[in-house]
Amino acid sequence: MTTQTQRTNIASAVLMHGALILYTLIALFPVFVILINSFKKRKSIFNDPLSLPNADTFSLIGYETVLKQGQFFSYFQNSMIVTVVSLFFILLFGAMAAYALSEYRFRGNRWMALYLALGIMIPIRIGTVAILELMVSTGLVNTLTALILVYVAQGLPLAVFILSEFMNQVSDDLKNAARVDGLSEYRIFLSIVLPLVRPAMATVAVFNMIPIWNDLWFPLILAPAEATKTLTLGSQVFIGQYVTNWNAVLSALSMAILPVLILYVIFSRQLIRGITSGAVK
Amino acid sequence: MTALSLKGVNKSFGAVQVLKDINIDVEEGEFVVFVGPSGCGKSTLLRIIAGLEGPSSGTVSIDGTEVTRAAPSKRGIAMVFQSYALYPHLNVRGNMSLALKQEKQKKEIIEQRISKAARMLNLESYLDRYPSELSGGQRQRVAIGRAIVREPKLFLFDEPLSNLDAALRMNTRIEIANLHKQLSTSMVYVTHDQTEAMTLADKIVVLKDGLVEQIGSPMELYNDPCNQFVAGFLGAPSMNFLPASMINEGDNRTLGVRPEDLIIDDQGPLSVTVEHVEQLGGDTNLIVRSDDHQLTIRLFGQHNIKENAQIRLNYLSGKTFYFDADGSRV
Q1: Do B78 and A178 touch (CB under 8 A)?
Q2: CA of B97, closest CA in chain A: separation in Å?
Q3: Domains in chain B with CATH codes
Q4: Which one of A176, A181, A277 has the shortest CB-CB distance to B52?
Q5: Which of B66, B82, B112, B312 is deepest in the core (most CB within 10 A)?
Q6: How many CB atoms lie within 10 A of CB B120?
Q7: Which chain A residues have a beta carbon less than 8 Å from that of B103?
Q8: Cβ(B153)–Cβ(B146) below 8 Å
Q9: CB contact, 8 Å: B286 with chain A?
Q10: What is the DSSP secondary structure assignment for residue A241, as one 8-state letter?
Q11: Where exactly are the structural domains of chain A?
């Protein structure tokens, strides 16, 4: 009996890990191809796209082109500012709205929650024309503020939804104990509730970070000026209608992976720390 | 001076009225226990006293000052919660000092009060530990310590023992009783456990469906309950109720006799069958049946009585209670 359950356990573990490994390979393959080809000469990219760079084909020409292009660091900086500032406001406002919805009983609470959740179902791109008109009339076209505002609006619904679910689980006794101890509602929110929902905050951050960093749509429409181009948009200069500088495109994309990777590592650490500290308590 | 005075307190959640015209006075240094079955409104009442919930009408005064609309921290109270409610990111010292820091107390005073509370509760060696590193009993002691350091005028306990196992519950109960003796501060304690109520209280308030059924000292309530609910709620095993007509033909009242007041007597008026015998060593509980009525008899010492035996019962005269159809004492 036990040996049989052990055997099925092993079998299911092998199957599960096999499936996960397969998925990982499929997901990582394009990234891998981009990375190896970014280090190759143009000719060998086309001749044999799947081979690793060797002594003959190795070249840093792509990176050189990108770095010489000069604007690259400014694109980089723009992407970083937009992503980090948007994430900050999504987490701040999302957490505050979620706390109010989960903690306070007021008229229309449910309707408010539903209204905020509606944004998850309706893609923000449907409103692109209206957003553009709004930005034109407020004079925010070609500013990073325009992008940040749009991304915060785009990220808030899911953030409120996830965070309010988690905040519901924070014990009422704990918040009441803090009230008896004389902490203000802001202190309770900041120093008691927020640390307890940190894993959820990290989840929300990761969910929002990648689409913002990778977005091409809104930078192209709202902020295509040289000074406000983001990295994704900036990389498009190497893609021409007739000739594409593949070395440069692949190098730019490879470098664009790095910062999100770093941000992801930071957030996922929080995530893991949150989970383990919760398990011990 | 009355430490706590509730006058005409009502509370409704929507159409549901959970507290109906509550009037209670707690004297200085008194230990008052609110007891009642779950859903009777006792926790809501405690939350109103703490200021975590506002009454729909009525007033709350603590130490002579009306505080009906005051914030919890401005009422001079400290509260111990059922789930301990310790701040998980602060160590024991941090948990105890947070409220004092909030009151902007001097460092020396904070330090002095913490070491005093830690000494009283045997927490001295745990001050630098985090709640996650403590056992249930230790966490509850920290929660009590967090209340003590504030030196409140009134302690509020919300079922503080219900998360502890039986042995620990008894120890902690004694600790709380000792604490009350040492501090001689007024305490309000909410529980659904009648043993805790009987052993700790100077005064018990029995609540049912949002109404105060009776207020009095444990023995007053035990010896002189004003209705069938109070009679049945206090005392373990609980009081036996049977139609008085089983003894006097035509009497339509309910007869109540406590298990220890029933005696085996061959000439007794009640004939019963023994269903089950509980040998506890110190006493023996007999669960017997007469027609459709189950009765419990508590005999002191050890008795060798066989199951299914037929016995006759009598009761000590003057130890019986009569209740009419609506449950009130007659």
Answers
A1: no
A2: 10
A3: 2-232 (3.40.50.300), 257-323 (2.40.50.140)
A4: A176
A5: B82
A6: 18
A7: 182
A8: no
A9: no
A10: S
A11: 2-47, 69-280
pLDDT in tens, A111-144: 988 888 888 888 888 999 999 999 999 999 999 9
CATH C-level class of A69-280: mainly alpha
Asked if B181 contacts B32 with a C-beta cutoff of 8 angstroms, the reply is: no
User: Which residues make Cβ contacts (< 8 Å) with residue B193, sequence separation at least 6?
Assistant: B35, B161, B162
ipTM: 0.83
Whole-structure pTM value: 0.79
Going by C-alpha positions, the residue among A154, A169, A179 that lies closest to residue A199 is A169
**What whole-number distance in Å separates Cα of residue B320 and Cα of residue A62?**
100
Give the pair of three-digit tokens for residue A206.
Answer: 């990761």
Q: What is the pLDDT of residue A281?
A: 37
Helix H, strand E, coil C: the string for chain B is: CEEEEEEEEEEEECCEEEEEEEEEEEECCCEEEEECCCCCCHHHHHHHHHCCCCCCEEEEEECCEECCCCCHHHCCEEEECCCCCCCCCCCHHHHHHHHHHHCCCCHHHHHHHHHHHHHHCCCHHHCCCCHHHCCHHHHHHHHHHHHHCCCCCEEEEECCCCCCCHHHHHHHHHHHHHHHHHHCCEEEEEECCHHHHHHHCCEEEEEECCEEEEEECHHHHHHCCCEHHHHHHCCCCCCEEEEHHHCCCCCCCEEEECHHHEEECCCCCEEEEEEEEEECCCEEEEEEEECCEEEEEEEECCCCCCCCCEEEEEECCCCEEEECCCCEEC
What burial class does residue A8 get, using C-beta atoms within 10 Å of its C-beta: 0-12 exposed, 13-18 middle, 19+ buried? Answer: exposed
pLDDT of residue B317: 81
Please answer yes or no on whether B85 and A171 come within 8 Å at the CB atom: yes
Partners of residue B328 on adjacent β-strands: B227
Which chain B residues touch A174 with a CB distance below 8 Å?
A: 83, 85, 87
Give the bridge partners for B66, in sequence order: B61
Per the structure block, which two tokens stand in for B209? Answer: 């469906």
